[in-house]
Specification:
Blueprint: E1 5-9, H1 14-25, E2 32-37, H2 41-51, E3 55-58, H3 61-74, E4 79-82, H4 84-91, E5 96-101, H5 109-117, E6 121-124, H6 127-144, E7 147-150, H7 153-161, E8 172-179, H8 197-201, H9 210-218, H10 220-233, E9 240-244, E10 250-256, E11 261-265, H11 271-279, H12 293-296, E12 302-303, H13 310-321, H14 325-341, H15 349-360, H16 369-394
Parallel strand pairs: 1-2, 1-5, 2-3, 3-4, 5-6, 6-7, 8-9
Antiparallel strand pairs: 8-10, 9-12, 10-11
The structure holds nicotinamide-adenine-dinucleotide and magnesium ion (MG).
Magnesium ion (MG) binds next to helix 7.
């Protein structure tokens, strides 16, 4: 990596803010080239005051105009850019060495791909881009000559447990992703039809954005993570297992042919994987609390129940079929989760919508970015039709 500069895509989100906290723990080490967000100009302004990036990007034009005026009033030199293309513009600036990809959902795909093509070290939180277009993103990393360092706590743990951060040839028997099970791990099944968005977002161990919080409650998050692990570590889906571990202390494991199992442990705090990835291959301070194993014991491990969590099964099937099916899964899920958060459909409808869209659209081999984007659009349209029908049925 020639340049040192850091861009944080999705700076105002949960991962973005944790990244800024790690940057602040290590003064002078990670010069900030740009912070980006969709529309939260008030939050981005506060971040500009505190962290002094060279550029600030807002996708929404009106929000960008407000930010520009506030920065001018405050006499700050940060330059404001507006629109989706500006996300790509900033990752391509020559001063940039690292890009934290922390936009939520499919909106992260194009800037993450651009960062990879430009040869940046991509710190990948935006798992949806690998799920949608893993083939294209891995190819872009190879061709750009940069690297991909996982931020997702499970994948960061596995990265730390593999000798060179990769899988396949190293005598690995299987990867074991741990899952907390989310807020509904022990909720009686007959109550799941009634749960509210706020209940679904109340994660027992992690504080996260609302979309990933719902994904954790359905365990679609773990399903997306199976697909993410296959791409990152070159593993077939049948060698990526899921184990419930309600305390979220063991962040994932690698089982080797000789019977050794390596695990990474820590407090459930995203600052640890973020600091690992930012500092890698060195170790830097994260500001996360130290792990108190005696205080947290005992640690439990259980089988993941696919009857309780049908999204896990749907994601596994999409991983097995491959091609465009993971992109279909992701798009249908994003639409269904947004509808659930907006109070349009019930919690259990999320899996119904995703399953029905997967049954409707075929799995085709991935040939181009245009094809993936067209599949994403088609799957969203299909999902929205089903959501409208479900609303009609319940009205
Ligand atoms: P969040 O909702 O808290 O933040 C999302 C960020 O993306 C915000 O800065 C927002 O402005 C930006 N954004 C949203 N839509 C956008 C758009 N259309 N264009 C440009 N920017 C947009 O989300 P989060 O919880 O921080 O998650 C971010 C990503 O990291 C997700 O892919 C998630 O799966 C992954 N992740 C999060 C956690 C966690 O602890 N929060 C852990 C592992 C992985
Ligand atoms: Mg995770």
């Amino acid at each position: 990596m020639s340049a040192e500069g850091l861009v944080i895509l999705g700076a105002t989100g949960s991962v973005g803010e944790s990244t800024l906290a790690v940057v602040a723990e290590n003064p002078g080490r990670f010069p900030l080239v740009a912070l980006t967000a969709r529309s939260d100009d008030a939050r981005l302004f506060a971040q500009c005051v505190e962290h002094r990036p060279a550029f600030a990007v807002l996708v929404e034009e009106a929000a960008a105009a407000r930010l520009e005026a506030r920065l001018a009033d405050a006499g700050l030199p940060t330059r404001v850019l507006a629109g989706v293309d500006a996300l790509i513009e900033v990752v391509e600036l020559p001063a940039v060495g690292r890009v934290m990809a922390a936009i939520v959902g499919a909106a992260g795909l194009l800037p993450t791909l651009a960062a990879a093509r430009a040869g940046r070290q991509v710190l990948l939180a935006n798992k949806e881009s690998l799920v949608m277009a893993g083939h294209l993103l891995m190819e872009a990393v190879r061709e750009g000559g940069g690297e991909l360092v996982p931020i997702d706590s499970e994948h960061n743990a596995i990265f730390q447990c593999l000798p060179n951060g990769d899988g396949g040839a190293q005598g690995v028997r299987r990867l074991i992703l741990t899952a907390s099970g989310g807020p509904f791990l022990d909720t009686p099944l007959e109550q799941l039809s009634q749960v509210t968005p706020d209940q679904a977002c109340a994660h027992p161990n992690w504080v996260m954005g609302r979309k990933i919080s719902v994904d954790s409650a359905t365990m679609m998050n773990k399903g997306l993570e199976i697909i993410e692990a296959c791409w990152l570590f070159d593993m077939p889906p049948e060698r990526v297992d899921v184990m419930i571990h309600p305390q979220s202390i063991v962040h994932s494991m690698v089982e080797y042919e000789d019977g050794s199992v390596l695990a990474e442990l820590g407090a459930p705090d995203m600052r640890t994987p973020i600091a690992h990835a930012l500092g890698w291959p060195q170790r830097i301070r994260s500001g996360a609390p130290w792990l108190d194993l005696v205080g947290t014991a005992p640690l439990d491990f259980r089988v993941a129940d696919e009857a309780r969590f049908p999204c896990l099964r749907l994601a596994r099937e999409a991983a097995r079929r491959g091609g465009t099916h993971p992109a279909v899964l992701n798009a249908a899920n994003e639409e269904a989760v947004a509808a659930f958060l907006d109070g349009e459909v019930a919690f259990l409808d999320i899996a119904r919508v995703v399953g029905a869209v997967l049954d409707t659209l075929p799995a085709e081999p991935v040939t181009s970015l245009e094809q993936v984007l067209a599949v994403d659009t088609a799957a969203r349209a299909e999902a929205r039709e089903l959501i409208a029908a479900l609303q009609g049925a319940s009205a």
